[in-house]
Amino acid sequence: MDVFAFQEVLDGAELYRLPEGIEVRVPTAAGYAALKIKAWVDKGALGWTKHARDLSYVCMWYQNSPGLNDSLYDYEKDADLFELANFDQDLASTYLLGRHIRATIGDDLADQLGTLWNPASRKLMASSERNDRFLPSAKARDYDTRLQYFDAIHATLSAVQSPGHDD
Questions:
Q1: Residue 97's closest CA among 109, 86, 110, 112?
Q2: pLDDT tens, 96-126?
Q3: d(CA 158, CA 41)
Q4: Which helix (H) or strand (E) segment is 36 a member of?
Q5: Are 93 and 149 a contacting pair, CB within 8 Å?
Q6: Which helix (H) or strand (E) holds 125?
């Protein structure tokens, strides 16, 4: 069993108390996304498309989170990502997700994940959900847009520069 980054994600998980008094740890969205990317790398080519859909949901959550989006306008925080995304807030939010994944799992594991999640793997991931009726945003159903989001996550997740695509 591969436990890549599990301890790091667990360490960063938030503790919640259920009404019954039971305490549970819930991973952050960035931690969850890191595990989904690794699961995709391991099983995506075998037709396990659930991980691609789940990562698309995390992207949409980041794009629609007011607290996260506020940091994109703060020059002391993440405004560089807003500029990097040519002032496209949805794209900037996905860059932010990659940055948060790196902070969650650490530089070494982020670099490993960035290497494993190569351009061919990202293209396959983007194409696996092309007609997903569960994604509410029509924009998120578009292959080119999803690939752009996954490439943005990769760019800030990995210190390894993405070589781009051969379309």
A1: 110
A2: 999 999 999 999 999 999 999 999 999 999 8
A3: 15
A4: helix 29-43
A5: no
A6: helix 119-128
